[in-house]
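Case study 2.
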Amino acid sequence: MADNVQVPGYKVIRKLGEGGMATVFLAVQESLDREVALKVMSPVLAANATFCEQFMKEGRITAKLTHPHLMTVHDIGSDNGVYYLASEFLPAGTLRERMDRITAPEILDVTRDIAAGLAYAHEKGFVHRDVKPGNIMFRSNGAAVLADFGIAKAMKSVSAATMAGNAIGTPDYMSPEQAQATMIDGRSDLYSLGAVLYECLAGRKPYQANDAYAVALMHVTEPVPQLPENTAWLQPLIDGLMAKNPDQRFANGEAYIAALDRLLMDHPQADMASQQSARKRNTLKGFTPVPGSLPAAQIGSAAKKMSTPIMAAIGVAVLVVVISAGWFFMHRPATPENTVPITPTSTNLPTLPLSQPTTEQNQATTAMMKLDMPTLLSKANEYLAYGVKNFGEKLDFPPGDNAIDMYREVLRRDSSNADAKQGLAQIAGYYEQAAHDALKQGLYTATDEFIDKGLRADPNSENLAKLKTELAKKEQGG
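Prediction:
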């Protein structure tokens, strides 16, 4: 494709990369004077009317996907037979460029981010179809971002003859159901994410053969690949992501994140805290485990080890509390910079819920509001006592059925209730201690989450505000 491509409204600066499907340019969107990545489809694809129709349709829909770990699409269109898509410019490169030097803690961090983005997209009804290292990019703050949603689906509409050499999905990361051209859902993307994780941990692709067709066949027929001895403790993640039968995989991205957190909790000897990557960011991570969402093979060992004495270690406790960050965090609206600061600006308690509620959340909140005051206080106190002993469980999750929500409901009815105020103060103190411990260990993302959770209980906590200031200095290298 000629480098002198012209797209109305964009000033092309330079070519960033080129593949069989498209050429990507760094460009300036002149109307907003902002840098964008301008992806111009190859003439072969642009000549196919079916592809063009699908490309425009899918692009417009996926442009509505807004998540910290999905690439933001700014514009899509065509001009004189040139089809283009303008998205945010991510200057920090792709995972493919980092694979030869990425550490185990870093790739686990990356897969957590991508799984969170996939969970959001799958919930909205979208399947990516081409999760691979080249489509995993990074923002300048280190957050991993999945690119090219919708394009693979548009490519599916193009005939095999037209698409020679441009398979739908990359064979090295293709799920068995993709290889067999059968119906797929979000679990296919999780399989591909598993193949990416395996390659980063093992230093080689899951299956290797002389041609792409042989590799695709191996994804269907060969056993799940086994990690080398030094990373074998992470094999349950590969098993849960790359099971040949989709029903035996993690049900969704949330289940993978929950299994990852449980595995880290079960293996403090891995010393993940001391190996933590230098990524210092303020993006939200993690889902609360959903009962029954883990593959059967994952539940047994995690359940057996949940009560072991090792969990008393501070580092493990920090990791455990991280997993208590629930849907509340993942579904809060992101700011334009994809960060979610929470700064106490008012003496009023935040209104529940802060995110778009699901039907189940609405039902839980409605049920809570029907409880009388003595019952509310009793349940809130029960959850507080339980949560302090069980790494924060039931302190702020699930929505409408947790200590914070119930204490706040009491205060909504009786703003001077001393028991509710004391309960919220205890919860804020609990998260303050967790944040302090996490900060000492260099776990900046966890520190920020604990501070935010504490501020939700007590927006006026001076100690939490000081910790947030201290965290900001640490993240800036101070």
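The longest strand covers residues 10-18.
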